[in-house]
Structures are given as C-alpha cells and as structure tokens.
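Here's my example:
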Amino acid sequence: MSSGKILTDPLLLALTLTLLFSAIALRRSGPDRRNRQALLAILGLTCSLWLFSTPIAAELLERAATVSTAGIDTEPDLIVVPGGGFAFPLEGIDDPLSYDSTRRVLTAAELWKRYPSARLVMSGRSGGVRAAEHRPDEMASQMARLAEGAGVPADRILLEITSTNTREHPAGLLRMPGIDRMTSIVVVTNGWHMRRALGEFHRHFREARGHAVPPPPAKRRRWSDFVPGASALQHASKMWSEWLGTVWYEILAISNR
C-alpha cells in the first residue's frame, strides 16, 4: 500500500484527531480533577486503540496464537479441512470462499497427494450473517470443487455439513458412517487456528494430528507497520477472538467433565 493511502486511512485520521483534541482539552481543562481524569482516560484508551490497530500488533498476536506442527510421517485415514467461511459477497455472483478456506483446501490437496489412500473431508455447514441465502452444503461443496480442481478425485472427498463451528467439527465427523474414535485424523488449518482445532479433535479422536497452512513469506519491517489502519485492526481483532475462543472452549471442556 502506498504512503498516501496509509496516511489517509479513516481510522488513522480519527485516532489522530481524537488524540489532538483530547490533548488540547487536557491542557485547557484547568484544575477540575474530574475533567482531567476523564480526558486522561480518553487519551489512554485512544493510545491503546492506536497500538492495537497497527500491523505490528496484529502480527505479534498472530505469532503468539500460531502453533507449529510436526511433519506427517504415517498415512492418516482422514484429512479434515475445517471450513473458513466465505469472503465478502461480490455483487452479481455467488459468494466466493474466503482466503482462509481456499488456503486450507489447497494445502490439504497437496497433503492428500502424498497419502492418496486417505479421504479428504470438507467440514462445516454454510453459515454467517447471510446463512439463509446459502444451501447448508454450499461452503463444503465449493471447497470440494476447489480440491477437485487441485487434483483430488471426487470419490475421495466427503462432505460433513452438520457442524457450524470448530467445537462441532469432530462431533460432526463421528456422526458419519465408518468413522469412530479410532479413526486416524489429520486436521489442516491455519497455524493460528490449530491450537483450538486440535484441542477439540483430541477430545473426540485417539489420534489427531495437525498440518498447518504454510505462513506467508516474511516481510521487511517498514515504518507503516507502526501506523494504525482499518485492515490491521480487523486482523488483530480476528486474532484476539481466536485467543478468546480457545480460552472459552477450555472453560466449556472443564465445566462438562
């Protein structure tokens, strides 16, 4: 992204103006202690949002959430791909798969070529805010077509369309014929999602391993990595939600013992 676009990001402008006006108001607030405390709180919250909205913060949150996976050295029975949802809908065409869904499927297709006796499972019911506009199998079907295009035969692909989130994926698999707790599973998902996903699969299957989507190539650090922006805030929020989801799943597991 060019410097001009970075410096005209609406979030950056809003945060800069908030800091500026708060600093001016603080300087003119006089001896009123309550006003000064309120203004200091606004300044502190704005500074926190500034830091949270920078690409470097999003990168650090993702790095902290990411789990490295060992190589797969024995053939699994199933290679499972949890659905990552749809991208933002484009006017006039069907919703495309999200970047995460696409990367997971392509990574799983490459892994399947090493273990062609395994079956590839596309897991997840179509959902989200526009769920009523989607067939229950639409996301899994799109994932299956993508895998076929990457070289996986249709007869090696299964669709699991009863689960709606990470916690439900393993239970959904166990409802399918020929699958039980002794089935050997490899879960293909993003590294930052692996901790939560494997945590759930380990509760249902005796052997569940992970195979992470390759991370993007490392980039050189730039000054813009420390400038807040809407896209960085969105990504940081996604990583923060992943951490909260992991903690919540652990709480649910403890409460159900």
Q: What stands out?
A: Strands lie at 78-82, 119-123, 157-160, 184-189, 207-212.
